[in-house]
Automatic annotation (TrEMBL):
Gene Ontology molecular function terms on file: transferase activity
Keyword field contains Transferase: yes
Name of the protein this chain belongs to: tRNA cytosine(34) acetyltransferase TmcA
Pfam families the UniProt entry points to: TmcA_N (PF08351)
Gene3D superfamilies on file: 3.40.50.11040
Keywords: Transferase
Residue ranges occupied by any TmcA/NAT10 N-terminal domain in the UniProt entry: 2-115
Keyword Hydrolase: no
Lineage, opening ranks: Bacteria, Pseudomonadati, Pseudomonadota, Gammaproteobacteria, Enterobacterales
Length: 117
């Protein structure tokens, strides 16, 4: 996690944003995302189908946050991938931010039902 914090500071200096994809079984992916969320300074908006500690919003309610900015964001696509919500979320991030995408295992993702379809 020290390397993640170092890279985050470098991103802030350079004014860039990055995507971090966490793909694997549900429990592992959630655990890793929670570790990253704890390690990163600043707000970490969580967007997904299941409530999480604040700040949290469902993908359907994400429109209510347009115009706001967040330091980091976590998008839970393990049960469905709402492309419009993902794009809107990306637009809320400040320079130096991480957008963390949680997905099912890449090998199994195409065969899993998509609750957003």
């Amino acid at each position: 996690m020290d390397e993640l914090r170092h890279l985050t500071a470098q991103m802030a200096r350079e004014g860039v944003r990055r995507l971090l994809v966490l793909s694997g079984d549900d429990a592992w992916t959630l655990h890793q995302a929670q570790r990253v969320r704890t390690a990163l300074a600043g707000d970490g908006l969580w967007v997904g189908p299941r409530p999480m500690p604040e700040p949290y919003v469902s993908s359907a309610a994400l429109k209510s946050l347009l115009g706001r900015e967040f330091q980091h964001a976590f998008f839970d696509a393990r049960e469905g991938f709402d492309v419009a919500a993902f794009a809107a979320l990306a637009g809320t991030l400040r320079a130096g931010s991480w957008l963390v995408l949680l997905t099912p295992d890449f090998a199994q993702w195409p065969a899993r039902p998509d609750a957003d379809s």
